[in-house]
Amino acid sequence: METIERLLDWAANKGVIINGIGPTPLPGRGIGIVATRDLNPDEDILTVPVKILRTLHNTPKPIRQNLKDSTVHAILATSLCLETDPDFATWKAVFPTEHDINTLMPLNWPSELQKLLPLTAKSLLAKQRAKVDTDWALVSTAYPSISKHHFLYAWHLVNSRTFYHVTKTTEKLPKADHMVLQPVADLFNHSPNGCRVAFDDTFFTITTTTPVKRGDELFIRYGSHSNDFLLVEYGFTLPGSLNPWDEICLDDYLCPLFTKKQRMELEEIGFWGKYMLDSDTACYRTQTALRMLCCTYTQWRDVLDGVRDEDTDQEVVNEALVEVLERFDKDARRRLEELDGCAVGNADMRSALRDRWLQIQEMVAATIARLQ
């Protein structure tokens, strides 16, 4: 608690306004923000002066010059690695530890566990690895004294704790580079129904959207993300019922069913792959692909051309989807069995991966039950 009290004192001296909330250690979840009194909707609960944000603009000039061809992500991570200001140590004291980051982030997991990730998570992880490798190639050349594990720790901190922010100076940069770090605000956890976040030239402000009881945790919304995205980028997932944007990819189970000619046909119309299922329905791409499997070619083309009602074939499409999902369910069970017998990594890593497969299994089972 001393580290939190020091942070609050430091933040207040920097002009941060904290209203009716406070950081609190949460069992098994690090630090979060809870209400210290009953809160009403539309109350500004946190106001952070823009001048104290860590941004590209206020990163030391030598770092910016040495990494002029790097991403803002890499520049901010490098600045964390090189930071020696005792003032910053007060803020840094509430960051997740390197052990925490290594446990939470799949990029740091043993390869055996990474191979057990769902397809979408694997794809996201490959893209993340490519970003890290590109950033590290430039940083390691400019700053050979920085170790890769230290840089990777800082890179993950920036990746999981920054906020979207744009100024006249940065508006021409790619959207991915519109990122800043800000104290206290970075302690909010994620919920689809989180508080409202806004900024102007002077302040970042977080505002309630619903009534909150004293002692309840408050959240912000990181974005409309699936659990695969949340796991890879932030190191956690939400229970499936709490994430309206969760979805799973059916490619591993649907794509092998097509002939070479059918694949070429689907590619020609831009409908090959990326077959997604959420808690409500399979996407239109999936429906179109499935219809190719269970209708005549003429019927399939007529639906695409709008001269045949797609509902006419919905029953057989649903039957085909159930067969695909039954294969998916069998694979999910196999993955869970592999995890039960797995000893690599640590228990928290394996638990996070197991939770994700259980969420997938739940979505698959619920869809099968609804369609049968």
TrEMBL record:
Transmembrane segments: none annotated. GO terms for molecular function: protein-lysine N-methyltransferase activity. Residues 14-223 form the SET domain. PROSITE patterns: SET. Gene3D superfamilies: set domain protein methyltransferase, domain 1. Pfam families: SET. This is SET domain-containing protein. It comes from Pochonia chlamydosporia 170.
